[in-house]
């Protein structure tokens, strides 16, 4: 299963909420969809989920068009909104049973499906509770369970970890990993970047309706920082004069001291880093560690985006 967003455009009045964006992701992968408030994430997700129509462009699930074949897409897609709709007079099992019936499941088949989903999402002990009485974490589990009723090949989740306590977030991460291992393609919109860092195979970064980066995290990082590379250098002894010596080397754009390392910005990529290391060795500086700095999703987000809103 391949999901392709192609040249998507959506206006609201004069506001261009989604500005010709394109990206794709595959079955078995979890992709983070990140950006500031007002970046166009929810609009894109609603188009992908057949809840809105683009002014231009399309989304394809294995070549099936969201615009031309919304009913077929709905059989392939599980959509989890950012909040569970509030129903004061319905129990958990009744809510899930309603959607199972809507998808055409009957008799023992429907009973088995609901039992399996309740077991997978940990809802068995609260199945007779009313939705209004549930905690935020349990409501999110119910929302995920509803999205899984028809065993979709694609999951689109809008802020699934919002408002969850640390334990609930860990449990949600575990469920999503299992779903990805089952071969589902998963797109997650979230502001909690530390959560996405642990589970995502890649990311799509959007701001003011435009894509700033898409792909594996290390690929986005390399593209966004192609003029410089950050390396961490540890020496045998900390010497105040080392930083001055490093700053004088021709490969260095900038450098600073941290608790353990000298953090250096190298002018270029792998070749320049290798030349820098050779120069450090030639100068007989006692280096014990030299490595690329791994940029986290939060660091990458701050580096790529400008904090602009629509």
State the gist of this model:
The protein is α/β, with parallel strands linked by helices and 310 residues long. It has 11 helices and 14 strands.
Which strand order do you get reading across the main beta sheet? 6-7-8-3-9-10
- In total, how many beta strands? 14
Order of helices and strands: EEEHEEHEHHHEHEHEEHEHEEHEH
* Beta-strand content: 25-35%
Instruction: Specify the number of helices.
Output: 11
Ends distance: 33 Å
Mean pLDDT: 88
Gross morphology is: elongated
Rg (C-alpha, Å): 24 Å
Unreliable residue stretches = none
Describe this structure in words.
With 310 residues, the protein is of the alpha/beta class. 37% of the residues lie in helices and 28% in strands. It is built from 11 helices and 14 strands. The strands form 3 sheets. The protein has a 6-stranded mixed beta sheet, with helices on both faces. The radius of gyration is 24 Å and the shape is elongated. The protein starts with a strand and ends in a 6-residue tail after the last helix.
Any descriptors?
14 strands; 310 residues; four-stranded antiparallel sheet; six-stranded mixed sheet; single chain; alpha/beta
Ordered list of secondary-structure elements with their pairings:
Elements: E1 2-12, E2 15-26, E3 30-34, H1 41-48, E4 56-61, E5 64-65, H2 70-76, E6 77-80, H3 92-102, H4 107-121, H5 136-148, E7 154-158, H6 166-181, E8 185-189, H7 193-199, E9 202-207, E10 210-215, H8 217-224, E11 228-235, H9 240-247, E12 252-257, E13 262-267, H10 270-282, E14 287-292, H11 297-304
Parallel strand pairs: 3-8, 3-9, 6-7, 7-8
Antiparallel strand pairs: 1-2, 1-4, 4-5, 9-10, 11-13, 11-14, 12-13
Helix pairs in contact: 3-4, 4-5, 8-11
């Amino acid at each position: 299963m391949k999901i392709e967003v192609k040249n998507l455009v959506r206006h609201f009045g004069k506001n261009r909420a989604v500005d010709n964006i394109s990206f794709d992701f595959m079955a078995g992968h979890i992709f983070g969809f990140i950006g500031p408030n007002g970046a166009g994430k929810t609009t894109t997700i609603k188009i992908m989920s057949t809840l809105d129509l683009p002014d231009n462009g399309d989304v394809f699930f294995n070549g099936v068009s969201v615009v031309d074949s919304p009913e077929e897409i709905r059989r392939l897609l599980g959509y989890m909104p950012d909040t569970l709709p509030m129903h004061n007079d319905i129990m958990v099992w009744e809510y899930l049973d309603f959607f199972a019936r809507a998808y055409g499941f009957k008799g023992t088949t429907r009973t088995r499906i609901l039992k399996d989903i309740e077991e997978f999402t940990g809802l068995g002990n609260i199945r007779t509770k009313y939705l209004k009485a549930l905690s935020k974490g349990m409501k999110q589990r119910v929302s995920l369970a509803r999205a899984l009723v028809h065993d979709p090949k694609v999951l689109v989740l809008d802020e699934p970890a919002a408002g969850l306590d640390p334990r609930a977030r860990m449990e949600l991460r575990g469920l999503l990993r299992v779903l990805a291992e089952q071969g589902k393609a998963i797109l997650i919109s979230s502001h909690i970047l530390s959560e996405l860092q642990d589970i995502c195979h890649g990311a799509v970064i959007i701001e003011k309706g435009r894509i700033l980066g898409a792909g594996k995290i290390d690929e986005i990082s390399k593209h966004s920082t192609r003029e410089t590379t950050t390396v961490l250098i540890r020496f045998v002894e900390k010497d105040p004069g080392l930083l001055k010596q490093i700053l004088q080397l021709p490969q260095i754009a900038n450098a600073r001291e941290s608790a353990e390392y000298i953090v250096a910005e190298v002018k270029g990529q792998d070749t320049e880093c290798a030349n820098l290391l050779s120069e450090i060795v030639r100068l007989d500086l006692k280096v014990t560690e030299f490595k690329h700095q791994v940029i986290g999703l939060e660091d990458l987000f701050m580096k790529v985006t400008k904090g602009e809103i629509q």
